[in-house]
Design the sequence.
């Protein structure tokens, strides 16, 4: 018997122990509150929660999920919404005075493709499935945008009671530790093996609860650091725990034959960490690409302060979101330019932008400051400039270009990166306007703003 697999007897004890623990210890989460509800709505709720939970912590997701469900409680209402409203909700913005102020501390859920995919899923289900959530695993994977094997497994097991497995970070951690899988997670053979383990253990009688109990164990007990093994309901079946207890020498780690591809290698052991924490073997981090962009914020007084914003194209990283004018550069390029050359470069690039039909005469741009934002794969530095647009300059608003007042900027679908940019530039722009002149200094501006909050 391969020690990395569960025996039939172990599977049955594992299911029983884990489900009994889950029935008592599961956290009360809003997306778990679905008893006596139509399966179509349960599937929708699981889909929304699972997509929100990708890359985002449970504690953060709760508020977004509840806000989302208030606005779009079912597939039909979501399909009829506007993409702009959906992106706003994803960005943590809603027209509600309490939420408006909390916006300043909320960074949004990020990874906006998840929101767009939810929207596309709702439209597809309404148009092609007559509003009925498809219940076959393969259909979900092949037809629903943004739905992969993991999400389809969660929806089919939780909403439709089908014995399909799931494998997310929490489940990988629990299974790797229980079966001492110490091979590289980047290898297909490792993930294939973990999927096969997840398939072996899923409980046919309560697949949804079982899958959630696995995730719950990984999230609350079998945590990446300092797992609470003494509180673990499956401790007796956990090979990593037993290995940690019994081990006399790190040379004993490779317990299978020397050429077992799943065992952790002795050379991988770091004696400063507990043994269980070595599973799963960490993926080597891919370094984020460094990028630099110039931002130009064009403002005008009508007499209200307004800012020019452009809707990002579909192919763009932040497609569908509103943004200030952005010009890409590189570190080398930046280093070669002095301040005056940078300004000339920005003006020339703006004049050539195809999105702007009628360009205001830009000739006096000022540096506001810099900020940095980390995207999943990009470490981005923004160098922010601003300039005033004269009343006589004509800029015709269109679907892809609009003037927004300050409140509209704060409550529109803009990315977290652009919120940071705006917050750097706004105090300086205010100082340039009549509002700013009255107050005199940036410090005074902030004093006044803070006293309002
Ligand atoms: Fe995780 Fe510890 Fe439980 Fe093993 S005994 S599954 S390492 S919490």
Sequence:
């Amino acid at each position: 018997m391969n020690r990395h697999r569960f025996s039939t007897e172990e599977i049955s004890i594992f299911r029983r122990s884990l489900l009994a623990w889950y029935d008592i210890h599961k956290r009360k989460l809003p997306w778990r509150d679905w008893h006596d509800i139509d399966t179509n709505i349960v599937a929708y709720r699981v889909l929304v929660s699972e997509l929100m939970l990708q890359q985002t912590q449970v504690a953060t997701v709760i508020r977004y999920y509840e806000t989302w469900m208030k606005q779009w409680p079912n597939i039909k209402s979501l399909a009829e919404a506007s993409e702009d409203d959906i992106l706003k909700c994803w960005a943590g913005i809603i027209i509600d005075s309490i939420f408006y102020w909390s916006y300043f501390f909320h960074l949004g859920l990020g990874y906006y493709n998840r929101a767009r995919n939810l929207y596309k899923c709702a439209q597809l289900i309404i148009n092609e499935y007559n509003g009925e959530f498809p219940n076959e695993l393969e259909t979900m994977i092949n037809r629903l945008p943004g739905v992969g094997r993991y999400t389809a497994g969660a929806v089919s097991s939780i909403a439709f009671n089908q014995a399909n497995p799931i494998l997310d970070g929490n489940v990988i951690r629990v299974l790797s530790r229980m079966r001492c899988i110490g091979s590289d997670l980047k290898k297909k053979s490792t993930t294939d093996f973990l999927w096969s383990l997840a398939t072996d253990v899923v409980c046919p009688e309560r697949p949804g609860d079982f899958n959630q109990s696995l995730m719950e164990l990984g999230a609350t007990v079998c945590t990446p650091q300092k797992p609470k093994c003494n509180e673990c309901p499956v401790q007796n079946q956990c090979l990593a725990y037993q290995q940690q207890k019994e081990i006399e020498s790190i040379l004993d780690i490779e317990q299978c034959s020397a050429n077992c591809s799943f065992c952790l290698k002795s050379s991988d052991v770091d004696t400063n960490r507990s043994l269980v924490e070595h599973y799963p073997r960490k993926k080597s981090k891919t370094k984020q690409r460094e990028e630099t962009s110039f931002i130009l914020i064009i403002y005008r007084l009508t007499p209200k302060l307004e800012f020019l914003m452009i809707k990002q194209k579909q192919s763009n990283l932040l497609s569908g979101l509103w943004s200030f004018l952005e010009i890409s550069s590189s570190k080398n390029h930046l280093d070669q330019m002095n301040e005056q050359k940078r300004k000339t470069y920005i003006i020339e690039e703006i004049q050539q932008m195809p999105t702007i039909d009628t360009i205001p005469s830009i000739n006096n741009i000022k540096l506001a400051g810099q900020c940095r934002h980390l995207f999943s794969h990009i470490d981005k530095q923004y160098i922010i400039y601003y300039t005033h647009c004269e009343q006589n300059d004509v800029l015709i608003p269109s679907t892809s270009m609009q003037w927004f007042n300050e409140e509209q900027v704060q409550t529109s679908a803009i990315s977290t990166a652009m919120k940071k940019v705006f917050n750097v530039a706004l105090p300086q722009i205010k100082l340039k306007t009549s509002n700013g002149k009255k107050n005199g200094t940036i410090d005074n501006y902030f004093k006044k703003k803070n006293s309002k909050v």
The radius of gyration is 27 Å. The chain has 19 helices and seven strands. The first strand starts at residue 289 and ends at 301.
